[in-house]
Amino acid sequence: MAEYFTDVELDTSNPEPRCPCVLLLDTSGSMGGAPINELNAGLVAFREALGKDELALLRVEIAVVTFGDHAELVQGFVTANQFFPPTLSASGQTPLGAGMNLALDLIEQRKMAYKANGLRYFRPWVFLVTDGEPTDGELWKGAALRAQAAESNKKVAFFAVGVGGANMATLGQITLRPPIHLNGLNFREMFTWLSSSMSGASRAVADAVVPLQTPLGWGSL
User: Fold this and answer.
1) Domain architecture of the chain: domains with CATH
2) Rounded mean pLDDT of 37-52?
């Protein structure tokens, strides 16, 4: 069962259009030790890289959803200048479907807030990182179909990264684009790449297709 928390209130004093990104992160027991430590270091690198782009600091909004013992909203949407990376710990199984549904619900909720306050926004991103196989039965398959439909209708851009022995065939059923396999534990390089990609997206014309840099060095297709 997913735990739902109230999202962070929208800062309407910032008139910039928003580029929302949900970091959907696996914190199951198999991520314990070096993987979770490097994931935490990667989140710090993500914030530091975004901090070098003054416009992205005001436009990129970040939320963090984890799935381990359960799916949980660890950080509601905040602009990058207000984002302080949480320190994550690993335990439990891999309720991927619950995590995906929570992330997609969160995006829909945030888009309603943008519209209610007259704020423009870019296509939201979901960035999934997992090392495991879903453990929540058929729920993940329904969530995968939901994610694919949202991407087909240009409501979201969904990315999936597999860590270690992650089932890449399963990840291939979640996203319309090829999943990326992380080379080793190069989380810092991955999040630096994500920061650069989000900076580019925050400068694009709304709903434009933003060309992404090839994940050289940190991942492989």
Assistant:
1) 19-124+186-205 (3.40.50.410)
2) 96
